[in-house]
Structure prediction request, 130 residues.
Amino acid sequence: MTTITREQAKKIIEAADEVISALAGTNEDVHPGSDNMLRLWDDLNDRYAPPEVVRELARIALASLEREQIRREHAEWSDATFGNVGPVGPLKHLSKEALEAAADPSDPLEWADMQFLLWDAQRRMGISDN
Prediction:
C-alpha cells in the first residue's frame, strides 16, 4: 500500500482538471486530438495517477465510505437510544470512559468507546469533519 501525500493529491487534481478542460474545449492552449492533449493524458496516467495510485485512491475512498456508514449507523442508534440529549450527555460519558482508558490503556474497547462518544458529542453540537 502506498501513501499519497497532500501534494500528490493536488497534482492529480490539477492534471485531471487540465485534461477535463481540454476535452471540454475550454482550454485555450490545448485542443482535443492535439499533441499537447496526448502529453496531458500521458502526464495524468503515467506521472500523476498510474494504476497503483488510482488503486490506492479507490481504497481510500472505500475506507471513507465505510467510516461514514459506521458513523451514520451509530448516530441512528444513539438517537434511538438516548433521544435528543445534546452534546453534554456524551461528553460526561466520555470523561468516564477516559478514566477507564487511563486505568487500562491497552484495552482497545475503551478507546473505541471514547471515539464513538466524541463523534456523538460533535454531531450533536453540529460539528462535522468538513
Observations:
- The two ends are 26 Å apart (CA to CA).
- The mean pLDDT is 91.
- Helices lie at 6-24, 35-48, 51-82, 88-103, 108-125.
